[in-house]
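for the recovery benchmark. tokens below, seq after
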């Protein structure tokens, strides 16, 4: 049930979380994976799991579409972007441009699908002697019509480089959009977030018990913002109780004050100016018309968006591989290194 005040409204955000402005939706994966086996999968019997439908399993973890290693084997995207924030665990990435990566522990991967890319996102369980807790957010950000046909691009935002502000028990991770005097890292060149007119921001706010923070107001009157609340407890926003699993939609120009309760809380802030364009979406494709959706399916069936050059539909790296990214043009980088 919606609750409205003079500064905003409590709303149901559903699952996956509803989008706002240019954001299509967001999902939060939290899996209490057990110890891993020699093949980087769970050291437990999974023969009874409905592979491809194994979501939200009561055991506390899911295989998703992975048959041996949890995750999402090769699948296509066109016409939008994915922003993947990995809080715990690692993700092994491979795509149809020839790029590959391993990232996690606070890293962010930003993929502009453009005219089409196939990629896999696998969650190898590296630890064999202890459990493998895993947590990530994935956010879908729409692209304007002018950018839906660009070449695909992915960019790594290593956690060592992502701006963070810590103050009085509050920690803000600035993935996109300036926060006070903190400038974010650059998104991919064709991203809607790269246009100053977009006012796109992605901030992740961690609050210790009882901590409070006042977020800066949006810079543009047409900017839409939504606060996604979750964690061990809810929060109070401008004095209104917002339960974990709910959202807060502030009124235009508001600078909401968020206060945690007796337990740590997390608030994901998404904001941006709506594209003002029609949205036609079906599965992994987001375009402007249904005809373009049909074309996307036909193109993928014909070309697989460049083909799949990997031996497996769900490739993973060896257990001891450190975090890295290799791009389609052959450049390789590691956290703290210059691209080479």
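predicted aa per position
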């Amino acid at each position: 049930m919606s609750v409205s005040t003079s500064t905003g409204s409590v709303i149901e955000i559903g699952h996956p979380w509803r989008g706002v402005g240019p954001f299509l939706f967001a999902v939060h994966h939290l899996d209490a994976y057990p110890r891993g086996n020699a093949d980087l999968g769970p050291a437990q019997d999974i023969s009874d799991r409905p592979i491809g439908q194994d979501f939200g399993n009561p055991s506390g973890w899911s295989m998703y579409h992975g048959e041996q290693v949890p995750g999402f084997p090769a699948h296509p995207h066109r016409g939008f972007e994915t922003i993947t924030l990995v809080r715990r665990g690692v993700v092994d990435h491979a795509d149809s441009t020839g790029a590959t990566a391993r990232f996690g522990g606070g890293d962010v991967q930003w993929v502009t699908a453009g005219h089409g890319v196939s990629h896999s996102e696998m969650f190898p369980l590296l630890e064999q002697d202890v459990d493998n807790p895993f947590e990530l957010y994935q956010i879908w950000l729409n692209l304007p019509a002018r950018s839906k046909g660009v070449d695909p691009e992915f960019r790594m935002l290593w956690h060592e480089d992502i701006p963070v502000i810590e103050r009085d028990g509050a920690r803000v991770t600035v993935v996109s959009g300036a926060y006070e005097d903190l400038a974010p890292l650059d998104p991919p060149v064709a991203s809607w977030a790269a246009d100053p007119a977009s006012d796109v921001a992605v901030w992740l706010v961690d609050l210790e018990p009882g901590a409070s923070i006042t977020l800066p107001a949006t810079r543009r009157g047409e900017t839409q913002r939504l606060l996604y609340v979750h964690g061990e407890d809810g929060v109070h926003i401008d004095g209104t109780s917002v339960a974990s699993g709910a959202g807060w939609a502030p009124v235009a120009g508001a600078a909401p004050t968020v206060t945690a309760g007796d337990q740590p809380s997390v608030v994901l802030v998404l904001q941006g100016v709506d594209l003002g364009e029609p949205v036609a979406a079906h599965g992994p494709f987001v375009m402007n018309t249904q005809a373009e959706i049909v074309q996307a399916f036909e193109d993928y069936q014909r070309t697989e968006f460049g083909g799949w050059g990997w031996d497996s539909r769900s490739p993973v790296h060896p257990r001891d591989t450190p975090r890295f990214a290799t791009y389609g043009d052959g450049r390789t980088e590691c956290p703290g290194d210059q691209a080479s």
